[in-house]
Design a protein that fits this description.
about 425 residues; mainly alpha; Growth Hormone, Chain: A; globular
Length: about 425
């Protein structure tokens, strides 16, 4: 590939081996599973290392913050050192951080180890998506990103369940050891992944936060699509089980089964979209994004029907729509976003895209909890307020009121992001496959 005077020079990327997707997808499954599932181990961790609230919360927040900020740094760095090397370093860092986590004698060391793991997770995500973008073409590329999206959704959806089973079976330290083992193996296996050697011209320095990429309206629009998913799906994936408990007194086991109505579409939609994109000309990136946003809006509105006096059947279809809205563009957005920027900036673009994704998840999940708790405290005080906000049965009317107000706020935010995406995309691309 011939580089411009302002871009890195690179050798052609070798064709992917049959091990490329398995290695990338195994590593990528662990990352979102860690995001969604670590919190379930906090009670056991507090029993072993102490119950300091701030230090405990940073077991989760330390990983999330370093992950969100790390994708920016790794995005820029990967364009200089290569995507395979970025992936391998990330897997090794994640493994080291997880090993230290498993043997930590104090919360301070555990928090630091989770930061290291988060930095590694960021490198895995950037390296994996950039590598797939450069290694595959045409329908194979579409299918690769569909599988990439499916695995991300699977890890996010099954994170609490898998982590809960591991905590029960091998303890919280064992959870981190399992993660370390998987990531160490993928680091070793990275030798067979396709890679390219990159040498930056003398004096060139790629900025960590290359906002100039956002001048590309299509790329900016694709960055906003995961934000909509964070608002309309990830927040509810995190807190809807508490709402089912607080409003309908549903048991954790039943709530887990009910959540399948929201998670199954996430697993099925990416592959279905990939097949349709390759066979039906009318199915474009734009039409899939519009369908996704519409499903999220309708699904969130339908969840307002959740009530102590109504059957849970009333919200099954809305839950399905929420999952469908999140699942439809997974993978597709990543592949399209990296396709509309210069190839030599794929890593930087992947970092920026995932900063929007991960940063918005952390922001809106935290904001949801704060808003709901504040509304509950307007009606209850003391232990009753804390227990109700946590989803414990006893005050269904209060929780329903808080949940309804919070979901209305989500709908308003979703509508604003939807309008922004429509305005940013503006005139459609001439290529109907990209429109």
């Amino acid at each position: 590939m011939t580089a411009t005077s302002h871009a890195a020079t690179a050798e052609a990327t070798p064709a992917p081996s049959r091990w490329t997707l398995p290695i990338v997808l195994i590593a990528q499954f662990v990352t979102p599973m860690t995001i969604a599932g670590t919190a379930i181990a906090l009670p056991k961790i507090s029993g072993s290392l102490g119950a300091q609230p701030t230090a405990l919360q940073w077991v989760v927040n330390g990983f999330n913050v370093s992950f969100a900020l790390g994708v920016l740094a790794w995005g820029s760095l990967s364009d200089r050192i290569g995507y395979r090397r970025t992936f391998a370093i990330g897997a090794a860092l994640f493994a080291v951080g997880s090993i230290i986590s498993s043997v930590s004698p104090a919360l301070a060391l555990l928090d630091a180890a989770r930061v290291v793991a988060g930095v590694g997770a960021a490198a895995i995500l950037v390296g994996a998506s950039s590598m797939l973008s450069s290694a595959f073409e045409g329908s194979a590329r579409t299918q690769a990103f569909a599988l990439f999206g499916t695995i991300n959704g699977l890890g996010l959806a099954l994170g609490p369940t898998v982590s809960g089973l591991l905590v029960a079976g091998v303890g919280w330290r064992g959870v981190f050891l399992v993660q370390a083992t998987v990531l160490a193996l993928t680091a070793l296996g990275s030798r067979v992944l396709p890679g390219r050697d990159i040498t930056a011209p003398d004096g060139e320095r790629t900025p960590i936060l290359q906002l100039s990429l956002l001048r590309n309206r299509e790329f900016l629009a694709m960055c906003l699509v995961p934000v909509a998913g964070s608002i309309g799906f990830v927040t509810l994936l995190t807190y809807l089980p508490s709402a089912l408990s607080g409003i309908t007194s549903m048991s954790p086991g039943t709530a887990g089964l009910t959540m399948l109505a929201m998670t199954i579409p996430v697993l099925l939609a990416p592959t279905a979209v990939a097949k349709l994109m390759n066979t039906v000309r009318a199915v474009t990136v734009g039409s899939v994004v519009c369908a996704s946003l519409g499903a999220l809006l309708l699904g969130n509105a339908g969840l307002l029907l959740l009530s102590e006096t109504r059957s849970i059947i009333w919200v099954i279809v809305p839950m399905f729509l929420v999952g469908l809205g999140f699942g439809l563009p997974i993978g597709l957005v990543d592949g399209h976003a990296l396709a509309v920027v210069p190839a030599e900036r794929a890593g930087t673009a992947a970092g920026l895209l995932n900063f929007f994704r991960i940063g918005s998840e952390a922001l809106f999940v935290a904001a949801y909890a704060v808003l709901l708790s504040r509304i509950v405290r307007q009606h209850l005080t003391g232990a009753a307020a804390e227990q109700t906000a946590a989803g414990q049965p006893g005050h269904p009317d209060t929780y329903q009121s808080a949940f309804g107000t919070t979901v209305l706020c989500l709908i308003g935010l979703l509508a604003a992001v939807t309008l922004a995406i429509v305005l940013v995309r503006g005139v459609k691309n001439r290529d109907p496959r990209k429109a």
